[in-house]
Amino acid sequence: MKNYLALEDLANKDEYLTGKKIVVALSGGIDSVVLLHFLNKHYPGNVRAVHINHNLSKHSDEWCAFCERICNSAKIEFKYISINIQNSSNIEENARKKRYLSLTSELRVDEILCTAHHQEDQAETFLLQLFRGSGVAGLASMPKIKSIGDSELYRPFLNISKQKIVDYASKNHLKWIEDDSNLDTNFKRNLLRIEFLPKLSSAFNGLIKNVSRSAAHQAEALR
């Protein structure tokens, strides 16, 4: 069995990535900036970054330039891909699909794509699937590792709390950008994150961790 659950916190090296060529999906937000820093620290020379410019914000070009600067500063290979999203009733979902298509199409032979999804992201995904009436497959939410063509998508931080990511950024004096769209509660995920999860977390101890565990149970049920 593959040991890809070795990473317990941000102090330990993720042995699953040893010897692998790594592509980090770099948005410029705190999560992906921490992921890039963490992986480059442990696997220098084996990491490059790809930024997807969605062209949805007036700040999009600034974010792209920011990502390029931090990569140049750390001597990390950088590439950006510009995409355009058609106006629709579900911009968030369309952007996600086009982003992943662009990222996976960009992978070279023997590279593994890493994204910075964490424990709170997993809990949000589980609840969104629950509210849609999804079955076991949907409630399994995001797998830590997933085959994509001849390569893999890997989420090193999936069992890591957001607070640990914030603490790591602070400890290492990292800078990141804040996407203004993250405050738009017209997006269901933002509404859940901003309005509901804080209240639920205050009423139920360990909510995020427990919901993430439920997603893992669903994934086990699929095997």
What are the key terms here?
single chain; alpha/beta; 46% helix; 223 residues; globular
Textual characterization of the structure:
Strand 5 (about 145-150) and strand 6 (about 150-155) form a beta hairpin. The chain has helices at about 30-40, 60-75, 90-105, 120-130, 135-140, 160-170, 190-205, 205-220, and strands spanning about 20-25, 45-55, 75-80, 110-115, 145-150, 150-155. It is about 45% helix and about 15% strand. It has about 220 residues and is an alpha/beta fold. The two termini are about 15 Å apart. The longest helix is centred in the middle third of the chain and has 16 residues, at about 90-105. A 6-stranded mixed sheet has the order 3-2-1-4-6-5, with helices on both faces. It is built from 8 helices and 6 strands. It is globular, with a radius of gyration of 17 Å.
Helix count from the secondary structure assignment: 8
Alpha carbon gyration radius: 17 Å
Portion in helices: 40-55%
Largest sheet: 6 strands, mixed
Give me the strand/helix succession.
Answer: EHEHEHEHHEEHHH
Strand content: 5-15%
Q: How many E strands?
A: 6
Structural class designation? alpha/beta
State the end-to-end distance. 13 Å
Kindly report the spatial arrangement of strands forming the biggest sheet. Answer: 3-2-1-4-6-5
List the helices and strands and how they pair.
Blueprint (H helix, E strand, L loop, with lengths): L20 E5 L4 H13 L4 E7 L6 H14 L3 E6 L8 H16 L4 E4 L4 H13 L4 H4 L5 E4 L2 E4 L7 H10 L16 H16 L3 H16 L1
Parallel strand pairs: 1-2, 1-4, 2-3, 4-6
Antiparallel strand pairs: 5-6
Helix pairs in contact: 1-6, 4-8
